[in-house]
Amino acid sequence: MKPRMLFRCALLGSAVALILAAQAANVTQNAPAAPAHAAMLDPQPFPATLARYEARLFELTDADDEKFDPGFARHLRNLVAPQVARNAKFLGRLTSGPTDVGTYLVSGQRAYIHYGVCQAHQCDNTTMDIMFDPARDRMVGKLLDKCTPQWLGQPDAVEMALLDQRHRASFPAAVTACAGGK
Predict the structure, then answer these.
(1) Can you tell me the distance from the alpha carbon of 182 to that of 180, in angstroms, rounded to the nearest whole number?
(2) What are the tens digits of pLDDT across the range 20-50?
(3) How far apart are CA 172 and CA 178, in angstroms?
């Protein structure tokens, strides 16, 4: 695809996402109730000690990339191991779409780095939100695979609420498209 066409597609996709986000504000989804201290997720600048995680997911997991982090890549492989066991192409399929730089989030006494990814041309029904807690060396996630949600890495109630919150913010089109789904 030519760069000009990619730009136009991205621009159109952004406009559609904004429209769907406005519509999604009125859509509810079954989600765990967030404990009071987890109700607010505040994006913060990355601390210098964690600046290496201010990258795209594929940069941290591609052994040929200068930002490659073998520990982070191992956590991601472990997180999706059950899905990869059923379908060896799962991770490649899921991470084929657009991704943004990780976001450093602080909620109460916990700090996480959030990454959101989606399958190319399927961002309205196949997404994954990942939260990495470097202090506890822990990774958890929420997978939405063809509108079927799954928790990854056994998140606790606070993490489930935060993942759901980030999913709604990152993928409003999926929230809308899957509202009547599972």
Answers:
(1) 7
(2) 333 433 333 344 444 444 445 778 999 999 9
(3) 10
Query: Across all residues in the chain, what is the average pLDDT?
Result: 81
Q: What is the CATH number of the domain that holds 170?
A: 3.40.1420.10
Domain-located, residue 182: no
CA 14 to chain centre: 17
Q: How far apart are CA 166 and CA 168, in angstroms?
A: 5
Contact 129, 141 (CB under 8 A): yes
Per-residue confidence (pLDDT) for residue 40, from 0 to 100: 56
* pLDDT reading at 10 higher than 60: no
Q: With beta carbons less than 8 A apart as the criterion, state whether 5 and 13 touch.
A: no
- Assigned domain for 79 exists: yes
What's the CA gap between 27 and 40, in Å, rounded?
A: 20
80 in a structural domain: yes
Average pLDDT of the residues in 74-98: 92
Are the CB atoms for 83 and 105 separated by under 8 Å? no
Residue 10: inside a domain: yes
Under DSSP, the state recorded for 92 is H
Helix (H, G, I), strand (E, B) or coil at 168: helix
